[in-house]
Amino acid sequence: MEQSIAFYLVLGVSALTAGVSKSGIPGVAMLGAVFVPMVMSAKLSTAYVLPFLLFADIIAIAYWRRSAVMRYIIALLPAMFTGIIAGFFIMDRIPDAVYGKVLGCIVILLLSMDALCRHLKIRIPEHSRVFAWGMGFLAGVMTMLANAAGPALMLYLLAMNISKEQFVGTSAWIYFAINLFKVPFSIALDLMTLDSLSVNLMLLPCVILGSILGVRLMRRISGPMFEKMMRVMVLIGGIKLFF
């Protein structure tokens, strides 16, 4: 399938930011995802971006495999899978503009609640099933609708007060599981095709380069700065979804 230069440039940026996001600076992939709907429909863009995310997940798991905190992975995944199924049934029934604004409002609300809890020094219980299931379900719905699990997942992991290495290692496993789970749904919706996968394979080197950059950047950032960056990424994600 013949495509424009802009098409490949935009997808190349998406592949690069996917690598940076999964191996070093979670949330950066949202910046790349902002531009992909400019060269195709918003729904189709989810299928083009998804394989980049999977490639990057595999690299991140290989590098950060010893840093993952399994109890948080186990706590989140059932709710996220449930949210993905809910998102599948929602996706084909409402227009892009409507659910984008709804998801953006949800992210801004979550960020506001996070800021309020920090201001009032309210600590989320580490083993709170209600919090894990609520954030996991939201992340599942949002990732199916717009490849946007990041904001809910990042706020959950920030609330758990773990190190930046544990943050990246844990999120890598969670993202890999849910992104793999989404593949059959994307195929069922006729979004992921052989043509889209051929483009993904062509741009795989961009994912690898982004992963190398991500690891190097993360090593240079302090823990407190890392947390601030994650909250900024959540805010950017919410604004991106809304508009």
Using brief descriptors, characterize the structure shown.
mainly alpha; globular; about 240 residues
Low-confidence stretches: none
Give me the Rg, rounded: 17 Å
The CA-CA distance between the termini, in Å, is 30 Å
Class of secondary structure makeup: mainly alpha
Helix content: over 70%
Largest sheet: none
Number of separate helices = 11
Shape: globular
Mean pLDDT: 85
Seen as an oligomer or otherwise, the chain set is single chain
Overall domain count: 1
Number of strands: 0
How large a portion of the residues is in β-strands, by DSSP E?
under 5%
> What is the string of helix and strand elements?
HHHHHHHHHHH
Describe the structure concisely:
By secondary structure, the chain is an all-alpha fold. It has helices at 5-23, 29-35, 42-64, 70-91, 96-119, 129-146, 150-159, 164-188, 194-202, 204-219, 223-242.
Produce the secondary structure layout.
Layout: H1 5-23, H2 29-35, H3 42-64, H4 70-91, H5 96-119, H6 129-146, H7 150-159, H8 164-188, H9 194-202, H10 204-219, H11 223-242
General description of the model:
With 243 residues, this protein is mainly α. The protein has one domain (5-242). The chain is built from eleven helices and no strands. It has helices spanning 5-23, 29-35, 42-64, 70-91, 96-119, 129-146, 150-159, 164-188, 194-202, 204-219, 223-242. α1 (5-23) packs parallel to α10. The longest helix is centred in the last third of the chain and has 25 residues, at 164-188. It is globular and about 50 Å long.
